[in-house]
From TrEMBL:
It is found in: Mitochondrion. This is Large ribosomal subunit protein uL2m. One of its GO terms (molecular function) is RNA binding. The keyword Ribosomal protein applies. Residues 199-229 are annotated as: Disordered. It comes from Gymnopilus dilepis. InterPro entries: NA-bd_OB-fold, Rib_uL2_dom2, Ribosomal_uL2, Ribosomal_uL2_C, Ribosomal_uL2_dom3, Ribosomal_uL2_RNA-bd_dom, Translation_prot_SH3-like_sf. Residues 102-183 form the Large ribosomal subunit protein uL2 RNA-binding domain. One of its GO terms (cellular component) is mitochondrial large ribosomal subunit. Belongs to the universal ribosomal protein uL2 family. Residues 201-229 have a biased composition (Low complexity).
Amino acid sequence: MFAALRRTCLAAPSSLYLGPSSSLRSPATRSRIPSTRTYVTEIWKNTKSSELTTALIRTKDLYKTYKPITPSIRHLRRPLNPHLYTGRPLRSLTLAKRKNGGRNAYGRITVRHRGGGHKRRIRVLDYKREEGGVHDVVRIEYDPNRSAHIALLFNRDKKAVGAGRWSYIIATEGMRAGDEVQSFRRGIPEGFLDDYGVKTSSFAPAPKPNPSSSDPSSPSQEEPDAEAAAAAAAAFASTQNLALGLLRSKTLKPGNVLPLHLIPPGTVINTISLSPTGPGILCRSAGSFGQVVAMEEGARYVQVRLQSGEVRKILRDCCATIGKVSNPLWKNRSLGKAGRKRWLGIRPSVRGVAMNA
Protein backbone atom coordinates (compact mmCIF):
# COMPACT_ATOMS: atom_id res chain seq x y z
CA MET A 1 0.00 0.00 0.00
CA PHE A 2 2.79 2.38 0.89
CA ALA A 3 4.62 1.56 -2.35
CA ALA A 4 1.50 2.39 -4.40
CA LEU A 5 1.04 5.65 -2.50
CA ARG A 6 4.67 6.55 -3.11
CA ARG A 7 4.34 5.88 -6.87
CA THR A 8 1.24 8.07 -6.97
CA CYS A 9 2.99 10.98 -5.23
CA LEU A 10 6.03 10.74 -7.48
CA ALA A 11 3.89 10.61 -10.59
CA ALA A 12 1.70 13.56 -9.57
CA PRO A 13 4.10 16.34 -10.65
CA SER A 14 4.38 14.91 -14.16
CA SER A 15 0.70 15.50 -14.66
CA LEU A 16 1.25 19.20 -14.02
CA TYR A 17 3.70 19.54 -16.94
CA LEU A 18 2.56 22.27 -19.29
CA GLY A 19 3.44 21.02 -22.73
CA PRO A 20 3.07 22.89 -25.99
CA SER A 21 -0.44 21.50 -26.51
CA SER A 22 -1.66 22.35 -23.03
CA SER A 23 -4.66 24.66 -22.72
CA LEU A 24 -2.83 26.70 -20.03
CA ARG A 25 -0.39 27.91 -22.70
CA SER A 26 -3.09 30.00 -24.43
CA PRO A 27 -2.58 33.82 -24.50
CA ALA A 28 -5.69 34.41 -22.36
CA THR A 29 -4.40 32.08 -19.69
CA ARG A 30 -0.89 33.55 -19.75
CA SER A 31 -2.34 37.03 -19.10
CA ARG A 32 -3.97 35.77 -15.91
CA ILE A 33 -0.75 34.20 -14.57
CA PRO A 34 1.43 36.72 -12.69
CA SER A 35 4.78 37.35 -14.34
CA THR A 36 6.70 37.63 -11.02
CA ARG A 37 6.71 35.01 -8.33
CA THR A 38 5.66 36.09 -4.81
CA TYR A 39 7.01 34.42 -1.72
CA VAL A 40 5.61 34.05 1.75
CA THR A 41 8.23 36.47 3.07
CA GLU A 42 6.49 39.29 1.20
CA ILE A 43 3.39 38.59 3.25
CA TRP A 44 5.40 38.54 6.48
CA LYS A 45 6.77 42.01 5.75
CA ASN A 46 3.26 43.45 5.79
CA THR A 47 2.23 41.84 9.07
CA LYS A 48 2.78 43.45 12.45
CA SER A 49 5.33 41.80 14.69
CA SER A 50 4.16 40.29 17.94
CA GLU A 51 5.33 41.35 21.39
CA LEU A 52 7.59 38.32 21.61
CA THR A 53 9.28 39.15 18.32
CA THR A 54 9.72 42.77 19.42
CA ALA A 55 11.32 41.63 22.66
CA LEU A 56 13.72 39.31 20.84
CA ILE A 57 14.93 41.90 18.33
CA ARG A 58 15.03 44.76 20.82
CA THR A 59 18.81 44.57 21.12
CA LYS A 60 19.20 45.53 17.47
CA ASP A 61 17.37 48.79 18.15
CA LEU A 62 19.32 49.65 21.32
CA TYR A 63 22.87 48.60 20.43
CA LYS A 64 25.10 49.01 17.43
CA THR A 65 26.71 45.83 16.18
CA TYR A 66 29.10 45.27 13.30
CA LYS A 67 29.54 42.73 10.53
CA PRO A 68 32.28 40.36 11.79
CA ILE A 69 34.84 40.98 9.08
CA THR A 70 37.54 40.94 11.80
CA PRO A 71 37.66 39.06 15.12
CA SER A 72 37.91 42.34 17.07
CA ILE A 73 34.46 43.57 16.04
CA ARG A 74 32.64 40.23 16.14
CA HIS A 75 31.49 40.77 19.73
CA LEU A 76 31.71 44.57 19.75
CA ARG A 77 28.46 46.10 20.98
CA ARG A 78 27.86 49.77 21.68
CA PRO A 79 24.73 51.61 22.87
CA LEU A 80 23.11 53.75 20.20
CA ASN A 81 23.32 57.44 21.13
CA PRO A 82 22.58 59.47 18.00
CA HIS A 83 21.75 62.56 20.09
CA LEU A 84 25.35 63.03 21.32
CA TYR A 85 27.35 66.03 20.15
CA THR A 86 30.26 64.95 17.97
CA GLY A 87 32.47 68.01 18.43
CA ARG A 88 34.96 69.04 21.10
CA PRO A 89 33.96 70.20 24.60
CA LEU A 90 33.92 73.81 25.75
CA ARG A 91 37.58 74.61 26.38
CA SER A 92 36.99 76.99 29.30
CA LEU A 93 35.22 74.23 31.25
CA THR A 94 38.00 71.65 30.93
CA LEU A 95 41.29 70.97 32.70
CA ALA A 96 44.35 68.97 31.70
CA LYS A 97 44.53 65.49 33.21
CA ARG A 98 48.01 64.37 34.22
CA LYS A 99 48.40 60.62 34.50
CA ASN A 100 50.59 58.84 37.05
CA GLY A 101 50.19 55.21 35.99
CA GLY A 102 48.88 54.20 39.42
CA ARG A 103 52.08 55.36 41.18
CA ASN A 104 52.48 57.64 44.18
CA ALA A 105 55.08 60.37 44.80
CA TYR A 106 57.76 57.75 45.55
CA GLY A 107 57.19 55.97 42.24
CA ARG A 108 55.71 52.87 43.84
CA ILE A 109 52.62 51.24 42.36
CA THR A 110 49.73 51.81 44.73
CA VAL A 111 46.90 50.99 42.30
CA ARG A 112 47.42 48.01 40.01
CA HIS A 113 46.28 47.64 36.41
CA ARG A 114 46.62 51.35 35.58
CA GLY A 115 48.62 52.91 32.79
CA GLY A 116 48.57 54.08 29.20
CA GLY A 117 45.35 55.00 27.49
CA HIS A 118 44.20 57.89 25.36
CA LYS A 119 44.88 61.47 26.38
CA ARG A 120 41.94 63.11 28.16
CA ARG A 121 40.77 66.42 29.53
CA ILE A 122 38.72 66.73 32.72
CA ARG A 123 35.27 68.27 32.32
CA VAL A 124 34.48 70.59 35.24
CA LEU A 125 30.94 69.75 36.36
CA ASP A 126 28.62 71.83 38.50
CA TYR A 127 27.42 69.52 41.29
CA LYS A 128 25.94 72.30 43.45
CA ARG A 129 23.65 74.03 40.91
CA GLU A 130 23.46 77.23 42.97
CA GLU A 131 22.63 79.48 40.02
CA GLY A 132 18.86 79.96 39.81
CA GLY A 133 16.71 80.87 36.84
CA VAL A 134 16.04 79.07 33.58
CA HIS A 135 18.97 77.32 31.89
CA ASP A 136 18.85 76.04 28.31
CA VAL A 137 20.32 72.66 27.40
CA VAL A 138 22.62 73.44 24.48
CA ARG A 139 23.81 69.88 23.77
CA ILE A 140 24.47 66.44 25.26
CA GLU A 141 28.11 65.37 25.21
CA TYR A 142 30.21 62.27 25.80
CA ASP A 143 32.55 62.40 28.79
CA PRO A 144 35.51 59.97 28.75
CA ASN A 145 35.98 60.34 32.52
CA ARG A 146 32.61 58.91 33.56
CA SER A 147 29.97 56.45 32.41
CA ALA A 148 27.12 58.99 32.25
CA HIS A 149 26.63 61.67 29.63
CA ILE A 150 26.93 65.37 30.43
CA ALA A 151 24.83 68.35 29.35
CA LEU A 152 26.06 71.84 28.50
CA LEU A 153 23.82 74.54 30.02
CA PHE A 154 23.47 78.19 29.09
CA ASN A 155 22.18 80.68 31.67
CA ARG A 156 19.56 83.07 30.34
CA ASP A 157 20.40 85.65 32.99
CA LYS A 158 22.28 88.45 31.23
CA LYS A 159 23.93 89.48 34.48
CA ALA A 160 25.69 86.14 34.81
CA VAL A 161 29.36 86.22 33.85
CA GLY A 162 32.18 83.70 33.71
CA ALA A 163 31.36 80.30 35.12
CA GLY A 164 27.78 81.39 35.77
CA ARG A 165 27.12 81.74 32.04
CA TRP A 166 28.08 78.21 30.94
CA SER A 167 28.16 75.02 32.98
CA TYR A 168 28.27 71.25 32.67
CA ILE A 169 25.91 68.97 34.60
CA ILE A 170 25.19 65.24 34.62
CA ALA A 171 22.51 64.63 32.02
CA THR A 172 19.34 62.85 33.10
CA GLU A 173 17.69 60.18 31.00
CA GLY A 174 15.63 61.68 28.20
CA MET A 175 17.31 65.09 28.34
CA ARG A 176 17.89 66.54 24.88
CA ALA A 177 19.18 69.75 23.34
CA GLY A 178 16.57 72.52 23.62
CA ASP A 179 15.19 71.47 27.01
CA GLU A 180 14.89 73.88 29.93
CA VAL A 181 16.04 73.13 33.47
CA GLN A 182 15.98 75.14 36.69
CA SER A 183 17.59 75.01 40.12
CA PHE A 184 15.55 75.80 43.23
CA ARG A 185 18.41 75.26 45.66
CA ARG A 186 18.10 78.80 47.02
CA GLY A 187 14.34 78.48 47.42
CA ILE A 188 11.26 79.30 45.39
CA PRO A 189 11.68 82.70 43.70
CA GLU A 190 9.19 85.47 44.36
CA GLY A 191 6.32 85.57 41.92
CA PHE A 192 6.92 82.03 40.66
CA LEU A 193 3.22 81.14 40.99
CA ASP A 194 1.69 84.58 40.46
CA ASP A 195 0.00 83.36 37.28
CA TYR A 196 -2.10 81.03 39.44
CA GLY A 197 -2.86 83.62 42.11
CA VAL A 198 -0.68 81.90 44.72
CA LYS A 199 1.87 83.79 46.79
CA THR A 200 5.18 82.38 47.92
CA SER A 201 4.14 83.04 51.54
CA SER A 202 1.73 80.11 51.22
CA PHE A 203 4.67 77.78 51.86
CA ALA A 204 5.37 79.35 55.25
CA PRO A 205 4.26 77.46 58.38
CA ALA A 206 0.78 78.05 59.70
CA PRO A 207 0.44 81.00 62.13
CA LYS A 208 0.12 80.03 65.76
CA PRO A 209 -2.76 81.46 67.79
CA ASN A 210 -1.87 84.20 70.26
CA PRO A 211 -2.97 83.17 73.76
CA SER A 212 -2.85 86.76 75.04
CA SER A 213 -5.49 87.91 72.58
CA SER A 214 -8.30 86.09 74.41
CA ASP A 215 -9.39 86.90 77.97
CA PRO A 216 -9.58 83.75 80.12
CA SER A 217 -12.11 85.45 82.45
CA SER A 218 -14.76 85.40 79.69
CA PRO A 219 -15.42 81.74 78.74
CA SER A 220 -18.23 82.76 76.37
CA GLN A 221 -15.67 84.49 74.15
CA GLU A 222 -13.35 81.46 73.94
CA GLU A 223 -15.74 79.37 71.84
CA PRO A 224 -16.08 81.86 68.92
CA ASP A 225 -12.34 82.50 68.99
CA ALA A 226 -11.61 78.76 68.85
CA GLU A 227 -14.01 78.28 65.95
CA ALA A 228 -12.50 81.21 64.07
CA ALA A 229 -8.99 79.89 64.66
CA ALA A 230 -9.99 76.42 63.43
CA ALA A 231 -11.61 77.90 60.31
CA ALA A 232 -8.53 80.03 59.62
CA ALA A 233 -6.24 76.99 60.07
CA ALA A 234 -8.38 74.92 57.69
CA ALA A 235 -8.37 77.68 55.07
CA PHE A 236 -4.61 78.08 55.40
CA ALA A 237 -4.08 74.32 55.05
CA SER A 238 -6.26 74.22 51.95
CA THR A 239 -4.37 77.12 50.39
CA GLN A 240 -1.06 75.55 51.28
CA ASN A 241 -2.01 72.19 49.74
CA LEU A 242 -3.16 73.92 46.55
CA ALA A 243 0.05 75.93 46.37
CA LEU A 244 2.14 72.81 46.98
CA GLY A 245 0.33 70.91 44.23
CA LEU A 246 0.85 73.74 41.74
CA LEU A 247 4.49 74.03 42.76
CA ARG A 248 5.11 70.33 42.19
CA SER A 249 3.44 70.43 38.79
CA LYS A 250 5.80 73.21 37.68
CA THR A 251 9.03 72.06 39.33
CA LEU A 252 9.00 68.23 39.17
CA LYS A 253 10.69 67.93 35.80
CA PRO A 254 13.78 65.86 34.87
CA GLY A 255 16.92 67.92 35.37
CA ASN A 256 15.49 70.33 37.95
CA VAL A 257 17.09 70.63 41.40
CA LEU A 258 14.85 70.74 44.47
CA PRO A 259 15.25 70.38 48.24
CA LEU A 260 14.21 66.95 49.46
CA HIS A 261 11.32 68.29 51.55
CA LEU A 262 9.66 69.60 48.35
CA ILE A 263 9.95 66.26 46.52
CA PRO A 264 6.95 63.92 47.04
CA PRO A 265 7.49 60.27 48.07
CA GLY A 266 8.04 57.87 45.18
CA THR A 267 9.97 60.35 43.03
CA VAL A 268 13.12 59.10 41.29
CA ILE A 269 16.14 61.33 41.99
CA ASN A 270 19.90 61.45 41.38
CA THR A 271 22.98 63.52 42.33
CA ILE A 272 21.90 63.66 45.98
CA SER A 273 23.82 65.92 48.36
CA LEU A 274 24.51 64.95 51.98
CA SER A 275 24.70 68.52 53.35
CA PRO A 276 22.47 71.53 52.59
CA THR A 277 25.39 73.48 51.11
CA GLY A 278 27.43 70.59 49.71
CA PRO A 279 27.66 69.13 46.20
CA GLY A 280 25.72 66.15 44.89
CA ILE A 281 27.51 62.93 45.84
CA LEU A 282 25.15 59.95 45.65
CA CYS A 283 23.76 58.35 42.45
CA ARG A 284 25.95 59.92 39.77
CA SER A 285 26.97 56.96 37.56
CA ALA A 286 25.16 55.86 34.40
CA GLY A 287 21.64 54.56 34.96
CA SER A 288 21.74 55.00 38.75
CA PHE A 289 18.97 56.63 40.81
CA GLY A 290 17.50 56.91 44.27
CA GLN A 291 13.90 57.10 45.41
CA VAL A 292 12.24 59.18 48.09
CA VAL A 293 10.55 56.66 50.39
CA ALA A 294 9.02 58.62 53.26
CA MET A 295 8.88 62.14 54.62
CA GLU A 296 7.06 63.05 57.80
CA GLU A 297 5.53 66.47 58.30
CA GLY A 298 7.96 68.71 60.14
CA ALA A 299 10.60 65.96 60.42
CA ARG A 300 14.29 66.77 60.16
CA TYR A 301 15.20 63.90 57.83
CA VAL A 302 13.89 62.40 54.59
CA GLN A 303 14.25 58.67 53.88
CA VAL A 304 15.82 57.85 50.49
CA ARG A 305 16.25 54.32 49.12
CA LEU A 306 19.45 53.74 47.16
CA GLN A 307 19.99 51.08 44.49
CA SER A 308 21.83 48.88 46.96
CA GLY A 309 18.59 48.61 48.95
CA GLU A 310 19.86 50.81 51.76
CA VAL A 311 17.32 53.29 53.10
CA ARG A 312 19.27 56.36 54.14
CA LYS A 313 18.14 59.30 56.28
CA ILE A 314 19.18 62.59 54.69
CA LEU A 315 18.58 66.12 55.94
CA ARG A 316 15.42 67.64 54.51
CA ASP A 317 17.24 70.74 53.25
CA CYS A 318 19.65 68.71 51.08
CA CYS A 319 19.04 68.93 47.35
CA ALA A 320 18.72 66.38 44.57
CA THR A 321 18.10 66.32 40.83
CA ILE A 322 14.83 64.94 39.49
CA GLY A 323 15.09 61.93 37.20
CA LYS A 324 17.41 59.04 36.41
CA VAL A 325 21.02 59.35 35.24
CA SER A 326 21.50 59.04 31.49
CA ASN A 327 23.13 56.22 29.50
CA PRO A 328 21.51 53.26 31.34
CA LEU A 329 22.67 50.79 28.65
CA TRP A 330 26.33 51.41 29.43
CA LYS A 331 26.58 48.34 31.67
CA ASN A 332 25.57 45.99 28.82
CA ARG A 333 28.20 47.16 26.36
CA SER A 334 30.89 44.79 25.06
CA LEU A 335 34.37 46.12 24.26
CA GLY A 336 35.09 43.27 21.87
CA LYS A 337 38.88 43.09 22.26
CA ALA A 338 41.67 43.56 24.78
CA GLY A 339 43.12 46.55 22.93
CA ARG A 340 40.04 48.62 23.62
CA LYS A 341 40.69 48.10 27.34
CA ARG A 342 44.19 49.47 26.85
CA TRP A 343 42.77 52.55 25.14
CA LEU A 344 40.81 53.19 28.34
CA GLY A 345 43.98 53.05 30.44
CA ILE A 346 43.38 49.59 31.94
CA ARG A 347 46.34 47.20 31.96
CA PRO A 348 46.09 43.39 32.04
CA SER A 349 45.27 41.53 35.25
CA VAL A 350 47.42 38.47 35.96
CA ARG A 351 46.36 35.78 38.45
CA GLY A 352 48.71 35.24 41.37
CA VAL A 353 48.95 31.48 40.86
CA ALA A 354 50.22 32.08 37.32
CA MET A 355 53.18 34.17 38.54
CA ASN A 356 56.66 32.94 39.42
CA ALA A 357 57.06 31.59 42.93
